[in-house]
Design brief:
Blueprint lengths: L4 E3 L1 E2 L10 E6 L12 E5 L12 E4 L13 E3 L12 E4 L4 E6 L6 E4 L22 H9 L9 E5 L8 H13 L4 E5 L8 H9 L5 E6 L5 H8 L4 H14 L3 E7 L8 H11 L5 E5 L6 H4 L1 H4 L7 H13 L4 E4 L14 E2 L7 E2 L16 E2 L17
Parallel strand pairs: 3-4, 4-5, 5-6, 9-10, 10-11, 11-12, 12-13, 13-14, 14-15, 15-16
Antiparallel strand pairs: 1-8, 2-6, 3-7, 7-8, 17-18
Helix pairs in contact: 3-5, 6-9
Length: 387
């Protein structure tokens, strides 16, 4: 697991970066002078002259302080070993370094708010009623620094649509600076019960935008229990229908756990009968963080125990022509009939493989584990050995 926020060590005097600085990493000492104010120079050590003008200089080792600039030099430890050209970081005055964007990463995830109008029993990012408006401010500065070849950016929360105009400002910035990058927004869909919000998404005219919306059951009471909000089921369905009415692409996400697996077959049939117009269905394994960790006994189930339900749901959806994927599952636990639907979906910075995986011939194709799987995982993990 990669650490995305760690302290650096100030070498000389307090950093001259104001409230915070959003900077793009370069290892080029000859980086154009006009671009240095928005850049951090990354060095293996501080040997040699350090050119002026960079907002921060990050050194993996301190060789000699002779000739160092008056400020803005930090040493960084092995936790930031992954930093490379093109990455974008936030440096705060106290020298904390937060990685916002990794050029070599599998997609980019932007947490835009911790506020939410649901309280899901297995939420990996428990909601907090805090003022986190600075996040959008940071991203508006960071997006112009992202590499234009970035394939996908994920917007997550909390509930992103609670930001209102601020969310759409960010989406317009992404469209402007990264017109060939797909954008995927994780939302509970409830606010889209308001037809005008669905229309706003459509009016963005983004070339590759999709909203991922959770639906946990074909029974309202079960869905409402999972999200801990009365009436959420009806609001979610209205949101999905409104968005599709305006031609917005929608993905249905189903997190499978002890409270949702029993009616997985019925949910698949419900989607086929009533929501066949959605663009994708993702059947997802559980991440044991946040409320999932707190409610472990109420939500955890060994994936081997619901393979019948998962197999039948996957086949039902696929045969109806709905694009279907299985996320966050290990190949050795999946019924062989549905292994081809498995996708490596876990963000690479928190993706792990366990000792039980040693010798597996299919590890490169396997989704692996969330790093939180050290808390609990199936005892049925076995390497798949092919000749």
């Amino acid at each position: 697991m990669l650490k995305l926020s760690v302290p650096g060590n100030i070498v000389v005097r307090p950093l001259n970066v104001g409230r915070s600085a959003i900077l793009r990493i370069t290892t080029n000492r000859s980086h154009p002078t006009a671009l240095r104010a928005n850049s951090a120079l990354l060095l293996e050590d501080t040997n040699g002259a350090i050119p002026p003008g960079f907002s921060a200089v990050l050194a993996r080792a301190l060789s000699d302080d002779t000739g160092l600039p008056e400020s803005n030099v930090l040493t960084i430890g092995p936790d930031l070993h992954y930093l490379a050209d093109g990455d974008v970081i936030r440096v705060s005055p106290d020298a904390r370094i937060k990685t916002i964007y990794r050029k070599a990463g599998r997609g980019v995830s932007l947490l835009v708010t911790e506020r939410c109008n649901s309280f899901c029993v297995m939420c990996s990012q428990p909601p907090r009623e805090v003022n986190d408006d600075y996040l959008i401010d940071d991203y508006l500065k960071a997006v112009p620094l992202f590499d234009r070849s970035t394939r996908e950016i994920g917007i997550t929360g909390g509930e992103p649509t609670l930001l209102g105009d601020r969310l759409f400002t960010l989406l317009r910035s992404l469209k402007s600076y990264l017109p060939e990058t797909s954008v995927h927004i994780l939302t509970n869909g409830r606010t889209a019960r308001d037809l005008s919000l669905a229309e706003r998404f459509a009016n963005l005219n983004h070339p590759d935008l999709m909203l991922g919306i959770p639906l946990y059951s074909d029974v309202a009471a079960i869905h409402d229990f999972v999200v801990q909000a009365d009436g959420a089921y009806d609001e979610t369905l209205r949101g999905i229908i409104n968005l599709k009415r305006y031609g917005v692409r929608v993905e249905i996400r189903v997190v499978i756990h002890k409270q949702t697996y029993v009616r997985l077959r019925e949910l698949a049939r419900f989607i086929v009968r009533n929501l066949q117009f959605v663009d994708h269905v993702a059947l997802m394994g559980l991440e044991l963080m946040g409320f999932a960790r707190s409610n472990l006994d109420e939500v955890w189930i060994d994936p081997i125990e619901y393979q019948g339900e998962l197999r039948d749901a996957t086949i039902t959806l696929s045969r109806a022509g709905i694009r279907t994927s299985i996320y966050n599952h290990q190949l050795c636990l999946l019924d062989p009939a549905i292994r081809s639907f498995s996708v490596k979906s876990i963000s690479d910075w928190k993706n792990e493989y366990m000792p039980e995986c040693t010798g597996c011939s299919l590890m490169a194709q396997c989704g692996g584990f969330f790093s939180s799987a050290t808390l609990r995982r199936s005892p049925n993990i076995r390497p798949i050995v092919t000749s």
